[in-house]
Amino acid sequence: MDLLRQLLLVVHLVAFAALLGGLLGQAKATQKAVHQSTLWGARIAFLAGLLLVGVLEGGDADVDHTKVAVKLVIGFAVVGLLEARSKKGLTDVLYWVAVGLTVANVAVAVLWTSAHHA
Prior knowledge:
It contains four helices and no strands. The chain has helices at residues 2-24, 36-58, 65-84, 92-117. This is Integral membrane protein. Keywords: Membrane, Transmembrane, Transmembrane helix. The chain crosses the membrane at residues 6-25, 37-56, 93-115.
């Protein structure tokens, strides 16, 4: 189970890199497109995160369900936003919403754990 968890974590992090990298690559563009790599990064990061929770639950790990719910809502919002705007591109406001939510999801993952164990 630990190997599966580690592999899913790698997939989750690489997908996140595709998501955030794709978004940041559009920062100076006047027409902010939603590239397929960005969209697939969001989708895969979301699904890998869900699978990670399942593996942790299956391995009797202590899972913070509130944290998982917050990350799930944020991740779903990012995927939904990018899916909805995949053909038209992002307005400047929606672009910054997508970037902000993506960074917020990482902050929840890192800071919630740190604060919880401090």
